[in-house]
């Protein structure tokens, strides 16, 4: 079935370590997105990419990095510069056209000890 | 950027219609209104979207006012499984592409 796969679902890391969250989609979507969600809060946009080899900062990009070397993959690295990385991270992709809706993965929960 | 405003929480009785409002007074003419919902610790689920006309699908109806400054999501016969956070968002178009910015959403609780 087509969809978006995020991995790992749960991740524990020590403070100061970089971690990379995987996001893969087989929907042939051009656009992909990363959001962060804190408990009881809405989703905040970290980075997004409209096409391969191009990406844009969202509202809270500091301390994060991304790459888009392949259409189906949009990994997110949470660097040691991110002050408070413990959160729920959601990846999404969107079909082409003005009205394309977002499809979300199941999320990755990162806990920094 | 066009922002949305939603009430933080609402309650609804099971079997009754749930009407969730959203204000988007700065929406531009070519921006769509989307609705998603999120059940705890899962990825958000697409519900419906619209531009000007009212829309209906198997999940819900979307009523958009004539001036497009507000909309209402209607769940015609709410069930306990409809308890979730509902997000109303507006598609923002930028020169480098477009992004979707989420607000805080409305926590809908359907009571038996």
Please describe the topology of this protein.
The complex is a heterodimer of chains A (113) and B (112).
Chain A: E1 4-7, E2 10-13, E3 19-25, E4 31-37, E5 43-51, E6 54-57, E7 64-66, E8 76-78, E9 87-94, E10 102-104, E11 108-112
Chain B: E1 9-13, E2 18-23, E3 33-38, E4 45-50, E5 55-56, E6 61-64, E7 70-75, E8 84-94, E9 97-101, E10 106-111
Parallel strand pairs in B: 1-10
Antiparallel strand pairs in B: 2-7, 3-4, 3-8, 5-6, 6-7, 8-9, 8-10
Architecture overview:
The complex is a heterodimer of chains A (113) and B (112). With 113 residues, chain A is mostly beta strands. Chain A contains no helices and 11 strands. Chain A is globular. Chain A starts with a strand and ends with a strand. In chain B, 0% of the residues lie in helices and 51% in strands. The mean pLDDT of chain B is 89. Chain A binds chain B through residues 4, 31, 33, 35, 41-45, 48, 50, 54, 56, 58-59, 88, 90, 92, 94, 98-99, 101-107, 109, and chain B through 30, 32, 34, 36, 41-46, 49, 51, 87, 91, 94, 96-105.
Outline the low-pLDDT stretches of chain A.
Answer: none
Order of helices and strands of chain A: EEEEEEEEEEE
Number-wise, the strands of chain B total: 10
- Biggest β-sheet of chain B: count, sense, barrel? 6 strands, mixed
Summarize the structure.
Chain A has strands at residues 4-7, 10-13, 19-25, 31-37, 43-51, 54-57, 64-66, 76-78, 87-94, 102-104, 108-112.
Write out key terms for the chains shown:
heterodimer, A: 113 residues, mainly beta, 4-stranded antiparallel β-sheet, globular, B: 112 residues, 0% helix, 51% strand
């Amino acid at each position: 079935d087509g969809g978006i796969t995020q991995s790992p679902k749960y991740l524990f890391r020590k403070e100061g370590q970089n971690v990379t969250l995987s996001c893969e989609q087989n929907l042939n979507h051009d656009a992909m997105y990363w959001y962060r969600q804190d408990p009881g809060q809405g989703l905040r946009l970290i980075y997004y990419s409209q096409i391969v080899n191009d990406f844009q900062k969202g509202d809270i990009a500091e301390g994060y990095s991304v790459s888009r070397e392949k259409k189906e993959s949009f990994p997110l690295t949470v660097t040691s510069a991110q002050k408070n990385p413990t959160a729920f991270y959601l990846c999404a992709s969107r079909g082409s056209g003005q009205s394309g809706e977002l499809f979300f993965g199941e999320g990755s929960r990162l806990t920094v000890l | 950027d066009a922002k949305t405003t939603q009430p933080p929480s609402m309650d609804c009785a099971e079997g009754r219609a749930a009407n969730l409002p959203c204000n988007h007074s700065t929406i531009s003419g070519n921006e769509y209104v989307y609705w998603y919902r999120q059940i705890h610790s899962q990825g958000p689920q697409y519900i419906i979207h619209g531009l000007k006309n009212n829309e209906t699908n198997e999940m819900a109806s979307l009523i958009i006012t004539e001036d497009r400054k507000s909309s209402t999501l209607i769940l015609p016969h709410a069930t306990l499984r409809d308890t979730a956070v509902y997000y109303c968002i507006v598609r923002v178009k930028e020169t480098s592409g477009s992004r979707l910015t989420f607000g805080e959403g409305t926590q809908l609780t359907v009571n038996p």
